[in-house]
Amino acid sequence: MRITSLQQYHEAYEESVKTPEKFWAGIANEFDWIKPFTKVLDWNFDDYSVKWFEDGQMNITANALDRHLKTIPDQAAIIYEPNEPGDEAITLTYSELHARVCKFSNVLKNQGVVKGDRVCIYMPMIPELAIAVLACARIGAIHSVVFGGFSAQSIADRINDSECKVVITTDGAIRGNKTIPMKETVDDALVTCPSVEKVIVKTRTKTPVSMIGGRDLWWEQEENEAAADCPAEAMNAEDPLFILYTSGSTGKPKGVVHTCGGYMVYTAYTFANVFQYNPGEVFFCTADIGWITGHSYLVYGPLLNGAKSVLFEGIPTYPDAGRFWDIIKRHSVNIFYTAPTAIRSLMGFGDEHIENKDLSSLRVLGSVGEPLNEEAWHWYNDKVGQGNCPIVDTWWQTETGGLMISPIAGITPLKPAFATLPLPGVQPMLVDENGKEITGNGVNGNLCIKYPWPSIIRTTYGDHERCKSTYFSTYPGLYFTGDGCMRDEDGYYRITGRVDDVMNISGHRIGTAEVENAINMHTGVIESAVVGYPHDVKGQGIYAYVICEHPTINDDLTRKDILATVTRVIGPIAKPDKIQFVTGLPKTRSGKIMRRILRKVAEGETSNLGDTSTLLDPSVVESIISGAL
Ligand code: WTA
Question: Which intervals hold domain AMP-binding enzyme C-terminal (predicted)?
């Protein structure tokens, strides 16, 4: 499974294209199967359906935990770094993690959770979040982790979409010097969630919380009363493992569904190869488990490889902007995986926070979530890697489950700001607006993938048509990523950003329509239009154009009120950076908003707005420009 040279990479790649089934079967057979598979792949991108290893049975936790008990029971699996730097870090070894997962699996079973049930997890970054995820996987319940920064309304939407039976949360969360309510937010959500029967609450902050008799249970108490043994449920490879909601260009977030077998094989394979993980090394992924990066490269990928994975509760700037570097020293981190927005933000705090830190344990650096611009690349390389660590700029998506286009650390020759080459099994294709393939090098186009890989999205929960229309209908026969991409003279790939109405704010995916819907809920707002614009730290910022019913009396106050509404409806991550009050929006005669113009104004590029002759009222544009922020 391990690639150790550039030549081997090319050989593996070629094999994965020529004989994909043989290639992936060979890798899949390195895992423990309860019942071996005989069929490798069945697929159809026209009437979308993909099945990998479909008649095989396995359990991902048997591979991520039990398999290592024979060889490395006493090695660290999860190293928990608490929010307070002075607090003791807690290490869970493979045998301890296994025991905690088995116990909590029994807690879930005692509450009537069975295979196929959906469980919502809304927790801060503490070990119990990983334990809850793995316990679901062990008994075959489908976990749906909701990022701890989402509002009650967002939690409710997600719970209701997949009809979760149980919610797992904490009393509160601690991030930096803030204490944040969790249970209270869940309580607000549950007012409109009839499917939820039980809420399990782990203590973290000792914040007083309401506990409703017959519904709410304390994690600690249930854990004490649960039996220790819990065999891993035999799962069909194509049984759903989890749902993770993500934003698209239209409507409500959709529940991306990943299944057990393919996801296991692909996350394990990509983790081992891209980071060139060596036994005993410490891996630190700074992503929250509430996002796909945390699922695949904090929990599943590392544990499947018997790795030591750091789970950090806090924020990069608490107690100061040197926190990541202190953690690297404290735990002798060898591989560090973070997002460009974090790099740019820390860069902005000044080099004094990094200059005297001992980063000598580092061997490999990784980046994910948005384009890593050259300036940030160089700072990452010079200051963090001290010129000694290859940087893997990994391009992938919630829908792809695992890394897709990425260097292999120390093996693929690098180029700043390039995700470089596709990993084995990944067959990218650039197409033009009409879906025609763009061949050759030194070209730009929309990025599609023409062949399935094991952890490709299987469906969007409860709405397979939506999955088909979102990903497989723009360019028939191809998976469309939503990203624009350049392939340079050397055949290297550089992702240029989304080409749809999805924004990427600090590496978080947010749909323009979602933010507009939230703004429109604010009293007195008639209509709004939201676009992304370049932002030095966040990558993109949110610019909102808002039409109010009456002229605002105090613009600043109304802006703050609108932010409060957006925070309540979605969460603080979706708050616009700029709100411009306008009297009209540039619309075509058919009523479509010309976002192109709004994007240009937001970017401050008003000299060349292109053709505006099809606008219903071209004078609107003048007034928008004159009021631009
Ligand atoms: C963007 C995160 C440039 C891209 C794993 C993609 C990137 C979206 C990179 C998916 C990268 C991710 N370079 N852009 N290395 N990685 N993106 O679903 O636009 O949260 O479509 O998954 O992030 O975001 P998601």
Answer: 514-592
Residue from 397, 449, 456, 493 whose mutation best tests the ligand 1 pocket (most atoms within 8 A of CB): 397
107: left (phi > 0), else alpha (psi -120 to 50), else beta?
A: alpha
What separation in Å is there between the alpha carbon of 78 and the centre of ligand 1?
26
Ligand 1 center–CA 556 separation, angstroms: 33
User: pTM (2 decimals)?
Assistant: 0.97
Q: What's the whole-number mean pLDDT along residues 433-459?
A: 97
Q: What is the largest CA-CA distance in the chain?
A: 73
Is residue 608 over pLDDT 90?
Answer: no
Spacing, Cα 609 to ligand 1 middle (Å): 28
Q: The tokens of 34 are what?
A: 């309860």
Q: Helix (H, G, I), strand (E, B), or coil: what is residue 356? A: coil
Q: Which atom of ligand 1 is nearest to the CA of 406?
A: 15
Gap between the Cα atoms of 264 and 34, Å rounded? 14
Q: How confident is the model at residue 552 (pLDDT cuts 50, 70, 90)?
A: confident
Ligand 1 atom closest to Cα of residue 482:
21
Give me the pLDDT at residue 249, please. 80
Question: Cβ distance 304 to 97 under 8 Å?
Answer: no
Please work out whether the CB of residue 393 comes within 6 Å of at least one atom of ligand 1: yes
Give the residue, by CA position, lying nearest to ligand 1 atom 23: 369
| Termini Cα distance of the chain | 53
pLDDT in tens, 27-61: 999 999 999 999 999 999 999 999 999 999 999 99
Give the pLDDT confidence score for residue 239 in this predicted structure: 98
The answer, yes or no, to whether the previous bond of 319 is cis (omega within 30 of 0) is yes
* Backbone region of residue 420 per phi and psi (left: phi > 0; alpha: psi in -120 to 50; beta: other values): left
ipTM above 0.90, yes or no: yes
| Pocket of ligand 1 contains residue 503 by CB under 6 Å | no
**What is the C-alpha separation between 375 and 380, in angstroms, rounded?**
9
Distance 77 CA to ligand 1 centre (A): 27
Say how many C-beta atoms besides its own lie within 10 A of residue 11's C-beta: 13
Predicted pLDDT at 252? 86
Query: 600-606: long-range contacts (C-beta < 8 A, 24 or more apart)?
Result: 601/625, 601/628, 602/531, 602/532, 602/533, 602/543, 602/578, 602/628, 603/533, 603/534, 604/628
pLDDT at 559: 97
Which residue lies with its CA nearest to atom 3 of ligand 1?
371
Secondary element (H or E) of residue 106: helix 94-110
Cβ of residue 412 lying under 6 Å from some atom of ligand 1: no
